Structure formats: C-alpha cells, structure tokens
Amino acid sequence: MALLNVGAEDQKGHEEIRSAAKLIRETDVDINFQGFVEGDDIAKGTVDVVVTDGFTGNIALKTGEGTARLVGQLLREALTSGPLAQLGALIAYPALRKLRTRMDPGTFNGALFLGLNGLVVKSHGSANGRGYAAAIGVAEKLARSHYRDEVVSNIQRLSQANASAAAAASAAAGDAK
C-alpha cells in the first residue's frame, strides 16, 4: 500500500499527506506501507493498493481511462491506414483482443469507500453490465473477508498515535513557556 503523491521522496507533497505517511510509519499498523508513489506507478503496478483522496483519485482514474482510449483510437487508426496495416491487424487480432480485454475498465471496476460503518463499493458511472458485475464481485469478496476488522483496528491505532503525538506536542509547547 502506498499514498499517491507528487513524488516518492518524503519531503514532497502537501503537509497533510506527509503527516499521514509519518503517522502510518510511526504507528503499529498491520499494513505493508511502501511510502509514496507517483501517478505513473498506478499503471506500473508498483504496489497493489494506492490510497488517495476522492478528488485526486478521480482525476488519476479519468486520466488513465482517457489515455487508454486515446491509445486505442490511435492504434485503430494505424491498423486501418492501408492494406498492409490491415493485414498486420488481421494477423495480430488474437493478441489485440487480449490487450483490449486487459485494458477494458470494466474488467477492474469497483472502488472501496473507507471510513463508513458498512461496505460500500462504488462502480464507475460509465460502467457497462460487465463492469457492474465486476464491482459486485469486489463487494462479495470484501464481504467474505475480515478487511473491516483490520481497517477498524488500524484506524484505532492511528487515532491513538495521533492523539498521543498531539498531547506530546502540546506538553512540549507548555514546557517551552
């Protein structure tokens, strides 16, 4: 798991994200925390889970989808540009079909909302039936898992650590007077 940021270095990003990373590192949470990742790490698969706020996450998601559509359109244009290209496309068709399936946003649909007292999986607004079914599959898998217990436990640890850090800072400020 990593936090989406403008750079992988600890000093990069706004104060809230640096504080979140520091808190996660300093707290005994059961998370394989890798630190920060950048936008290009999402497609690379650098980590299994990328955490971000909804605004930034939506931008990242839509940028990736738009790029995939653009690449698909450019590839289609190139493969239909002439008789030789069309022959190449015909030969490459099985591989291109696999690529299309792999790049289809409906294949991997369903984002988990955390911080709620229940299971909420959001499907993409433009999802087709296959994408909607994928989101239901994500919800089913999560419903059968113990993820909520782990999330609650880790959030409690983070909250306690944050409260302890705030108390220590307040005490230090009081001692300085």
Describe the structure.
It is a single chain. The chain has 177 residues and is mainly alpha-helical. The chain folds into 3 domains: 52 residues, no CATH class; 49 residues, no CATH class; 61 residues, no CATH class. The protein has 6 helices and 5 strands. The chain has a 3-stranded parallel beta sheet. Strands 4-5 form a two-stranded antiparallel sheet. α1 links the parallel β1 and β2.
Jot down its keywords.
single chain; 177 residues; mainly alpha; 3 domains; three-stranded parallel sheet; two-stranded antiparallel ribbon; 6% strand; elongated
In brief:
This protein is mainly α and 177 residues long.
**SS content category:** mainly alpha
Helix content: 55-70%
Range of strand content: 5-15%
The separation of the N and C termini measures 41 Å
Q: Provide the gyration radius in Å.
A: 22 Å
Q: What strand order characterises the main sheet?
A: 2-1-3
Detail the poorly predicted runs.
none
Task: Give the count of structural domains.
Answer: 3
Topology:
Blueprint: E1 2-4, H1 15-26, E2 36-37, H2 39-44, E3 50-51, H3 54-79, H4 83-103, E4 111-112, E5 121-122, H5 129-144, H6 147-176
Parallel strand pairs: 1-2, 1-3
Antiparallel strand pairs: 4-5
